[in-house]
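Hi R.,

Here's the input for the adenosine-5'-triphosphate complex you asked about:
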Amino acid sequence: MSAQEVGITKQEQREEVMNYRQRLTDKELLDKSMEIKKKLFELDEFIEAEVIMFYVDFRNEVKTEFMIKEALNDGKRVVIPISQVEDRSLLLSELKDYDQELETGTYDILEPREEYIRPVEHSELDLVTVPGVAFDEDCNRLGYGGGYYDRFSAGLDPDVDRIALAFEIQIVDQVVTDEHDLPVDKVLTEKRVIT
Ligand SMILES: Nc1nc2c(c(=O)[nH]1)N(C=O)[C@@H](CNc1ccc(C(=O)N[C@@H](CCC(=O)O)C(=O)O)cc1)CN2
Ligand SMILES: Nc1ncnc2c1ncn2[C@@H]1O[C@H](COP(=O)(O)OP(=O)(O)OP(=O)(O)O)[C@@H](O)[C@H]1O
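And here is the predicted structure with adenosine-5'-triphosphate in place:
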């Protein structure tokens, strides 16, 4: 579905859904994120995954801090992205201690401090959690407009599971897409699993 067919632009859809999401209270954000965590940790592909890429949440995204900590406790290897603004790519780094290793980085997103950057190859990943602004029931995704995850996903082996985490209010009838946009494999919300 092109922007023209939906009748609004990516930027308009972004602003509309970000406005909805802005209205969630801290308690709602936390409670819903816990429900989403439960669904993620029950997925077979998550249970089987050894190396998992998590985003580190910012703005009013589904919270991942407690997911990252529990995954580390469970013995998973956790990888987080570092935004490379020059070419809008993601550098991957293994995280071992959430509380000790992070500092505020690009876009005010937490990133590893220099001495804790431990580069990881794309080919090592088993599962990727994907952030976003809006999703639809066909698993299409709208992000913040950097194209980071589309460019990153295009270079991933197709058998790496890409699982989006979103609040139900981020699900729209139709996401405005273009030819670069790659759908995710699943979208988890506090209410359901969209495949
Ligand atoms: N938590 C988290 N980490 C992430 C992402 C994400 O969506 N969530 N990204 C996912 O890719 C990358 C960062 N992508 C970003 C892309 C744009 C903007 C941003 O501030 N954009 C401007 C508008 C730019 C425009 O419209 O041209 C803005 O929103 O004000 C922020 C992050 C990597 N790390
Ligand atoms: N695989 C790709 N190769 C080259 N350019 C791309 C690719 N994917 C996206 N782009 C370009 O990046 C820009 C932003 O894309 P888009 O608006 O889809 O970002 P987004 O998915 O909303 O953002 P993000 O992934 O950072 O959350 C667009 O100009 C788009 O053409």
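One thing worth noting: The chain has one domain: 3-131+154-194.

Cheers,
M.
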